[in-house]
Amino acid sequence: MSPDQIAGAATAGVAVLGLIGGWWKWGRPRIKRARRTVTAVIETLVGRDAITDASTGRELVPAQAGLGVRMAQVEDGQRTQAETLAKLTETVASLNDAHRRLDAVEHDVAELKQARNERAIAQAESAQMYRLLAEGDPDLLPPPKSDD
Question: What is the pLDDT averaged over residues 53-76?
Answer without folding.
Answer: 89
